[in-house]
Amino acid sequence: MTRAAEDRQDSEEQTPRRMSLRRRVTLLAATCVAGTVALVSFGAYWTMRANLYETLDEQLIERAENAVQSPPVTNRVEQIPAAFLASTDIEIGVLSLAGRPGVAQMRNPVGHAPPWGESELRVASGLQDISLRTEPKTNSRVIALPSGPGEAIVLAQPLEPTQQILRRLALVLFGVGGAGVLVAAGAGTAVARGSLRPVENLTAATERVSATGDLRPIPVTGDDELARLTVSFNRMLAAVEDAQRRQRQLVADAGHELRTPLTSMRTNLELLLAADKPGARTLSPEDRADIARDVTGQLDEITQLIGDLSLLARGDAPPAEPERVEMVDVVERALERARRRAGSIEFDVSLQPWAVYGDSSELERAVLNLLDNAVKFSPENGTVEVRLRPLGDGTAVVEVADEGPGIADDDIPNVFERFYRSVSARGLPGSGLGLAIVKQAAQRHGGTVYAGRSARGGALMTIRLPGEPG
After folding, report:
1. CA distance 469 to 404
2. Please, what CATH class does the domain formed by 230-312 belong to?
């Protein structure tokens, strides 16, 4: 195991493992359902409890009123309300203050006497119209209503039957709620497993790419957000694969382009070294001068090729902070540099103000490459036309036209590709990267490039850039 792998493993061991997304979705679903079930169950229980106790009180009040209004019946030598004989599920009695002064008496000839206290005495004495309370000692609901002077009928009904109903209800709600939570957890697991399968595929794909460099696309199913995420990821994989392909092609083409001048330079250097050995045929000063010029030209060619490669390699980097660039100034600076190596070639220039936002040096290099390309293919004493004009649609064009042999129809689609050189240009100096640099600069500024034939039969190269009048 390498040191980097060991460090990564140690870091993973030290980092606490977080709960997986699937488990978090399942836990969230179960928690939400549990909370909802708890609230609904709590509300249902307390609503039912309030209704049961309210119904119990209403029935108890109704029975007490009926007991007060019922006619008395004779039981041996004592008269009692007829409701005593019908109230078998409650305790009922008459609380009387008619005996000795200050002494209360509870009469109940048919069963157990109900509990009584201060509240019931106040009703019997006429100080209170009704008393309704819960007696904790007997766990019963007690009501008292006045039934005559110094008397009150007292009824007590046990709360145990009602409480038993509530306990059963609580058990039912708890069981239903628990079952609901389990069902929600199962449903959450199923939904998470199905919904997160594209995410798992993406994770597996990223791990595969990281481990093997395999950039095969992931199969896409459905049309939801995760499917669109998979499509976007596949596009990213395709872009990475295309970048790798272009990178490999660039390296291969660069190696091929460098091989020729390096081989020629090595041959010339070996010839110089062989001429300096004892007994070897000496070279004339003219031959040495020719070899020196060849070596110098080859060094210049290699230097230009390396510079062009470096410029193209920076094309994938993010652009610099854009600034307002006057294209007239850019073209004039490029013309000043092109004239120094144009020889007898003349330039017919017509420039109209236009401004873009971008990198002035990159745009200047692109225009200079077009000018150098026109100069290279122009005949002696020829004229290169340079035009900068707006098109009226928010864009302007820089056009460079020469009087050379022009571009073959088969070559027009490929002239801006890296290292592409037409048959007629293979004997001329250059690396085949100049127009590729032009295309890259135009695209980085939101523009495009075109190649065609000029009105005089030569090549017409065009850069189209968005901007605004200067």
Report:
1. 32
2. mainly alpha
